[in-house]
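Inputs:
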Amino acid sequence: MPQQLTRLLIVFVALIGGLVAARHYLLPRTLGEKGHYRAAVLDAIAARPVRYAGREACAVCHADVAEIHGKARHQTVSCEVCHGPAAAHTEAPTEHKLPAPRERGYCPLCHGYDPSRPTGFPQIDPVAHNPLKPCISCHNPHQPEPPHVPEECRACHGQIARMKAVSPHVLLPCTRCHNTPVQHKITPRAALPDKPRTREFCGGCHAQGASGPKEVPRIHVHTHGGRYLCWQCHYPHQPELQE
Amino acid sequence: MNESDVNTQAPLDGKEISEERRAFLRSCALAASTLLFVGQGEAAEAPYNPREHNYAMGVDVDRCIGCGRCVEACKAENDVPREPFYFRTWVERYMVNVRGETVVDSPQGGIAGFPTAASEKGMLRTFFVPKLCNQCANPPCVQVCPVGATFSTEDGVVLVDSDYCIGCRYCIQACPYGARYLDPRTHTADKCTFCYHRVVKSLLPACVEVCPTGARVFGDLRQRSSPLARFTRLTKIQALKPHLNTEPKVYYANLDGEVR
């Protein structure tokens, strides 16, 4: 073999050997085990500390609360929503106590009226709703019930009632617009309440000459909205459009 | 099958059953129940196998009340910096007015709810949308990482190896959902991991655990029955920016066309 070829071969072998050695020492051990990443990092990420223990962990000791909470309206609300992350508390119950928010500002985080919230979600106006009283003086957060039994229309038409409760029509009783036969309470589908069918009905309050408070929006009943009837554009339970 | 079954059924088979046969049947039943018991024991102690899972999340926009408990839980669980602008998940408020203009805001990511309610004057519709990393099956962030520090796992989660991340921010630029941030303490990219450290222990991600209305649903696409399977069966689902072909694995129900 010519001398120059031998030298070239030595150079190549040294280069390749150097590369293999460098690869061996520089690349992470677990690279390529599962893909183009260090497989060992999965264990590191999986070993990060857990702070939220999960509601099953709470029920182990607080079975009494879990029992009533599991059947109440707040059953979808996990304990740690209000009481904060509980993993440390489950490890050392006496050392790490969990907070229980009792102040009035906390509940409106979910239940304060906000037009962006889904319609039908129970909401109140935090300023007008029993001012200065803490929510827990009337409502048990583990078993929240409306403070009195739902009566009349609300018992069945809760979503409409809750929507109406935050609308400008809040003060109108359902029967102002719906003539409801007594039989409707017994056989609801056999005796249906009626609905207003004319523009003049809404015009009773909203026509230009109608009597009543001046804050009620007034329109020209016969020209406003062209050929449409009022409720084809406005939903009377939440007459939302304000301009 | 257990012992009592054998005893009650045995007389029906024949009038005379020898003691030998009875003993044989008894030992068969015992062996079967032992096998069953051992089998269950093994299943409970089986190590976590990522190939058996493919995680995904469902978000029902119509159930989100914008309380921000998910944002708070995410920051607490994952040690995300408390200052604004660092979020693994956040809640956006969309406000579409009568002129058809859309305004989107997210004060502090919604971590303290939305202290000022949207004005109803001239408002056409308004709603909340929770956002997070979409854990794309075809993730643009993984494609652009020059050092292989971000990757898709076998169980369908996109993770970041913070020891190998060089903080070049390419992935932050590449993510069409704005789901990544540069951690100011380590100067490495970070993002939602679907709470990987929780899901491998069969816990729910922190945001799903605390969502009070069930707007967030977590599950495994490889499982026939899971809350997510029910969610995808009973609702019409959409994904964010489907035209980008990222194949997101966060499915939205009741999504408005204005949501980007």
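The two ends of chain B are 57 Å apart (CA to CA). Flag for discussion at group meeting.
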